[in-house]
What we know:
The protein is globular and about 50 Å long. The protein has one helix at 13-23; strands spanning 2-8, 28-44, 51-54, 58-68, 71-79, 85-90, 95-106, 110-117, 122-129. By secondary structure, it is mainly β.
Amino acid sequence: MFYVFRLTKGEDLKKSIVKYCHDNNIKAGIIGSCVGCCDEINFRLAGGEKFYHSKKDYEIVSATGTISEDGVHIHVSFSDDAGVTVGGHLSDGCIVNTTCEVCIIGINNYKMNRVFDEDTGYNELVVSEIIK
């Protein structure tokens, strides 16, 4: 199953994706495509402790991630007007400027959940096949 939707000015990228998945009962999926622009970005950097926040015009260069019943795990890249690209783990606070087009590929034959992993300190993806 494929899901395609458009976000408009002022919407929060992550919160809107989570809401769309909830409203459409998407329990397992992947981000197939996400293009558009933001005028405010916020994401967690590698290492999991620092955040990058900026208010200026950015193009969404890429976004990829997984969707589970327990939430989303999405990584993003943004490019500014000089072509400088930054990216990391999508956080609340990435605000769409004019538009953002999101395509999600639903995976109906798998169940995806997130379970705390003592080794990593994060809720990690656990995938199980649904036998029909």
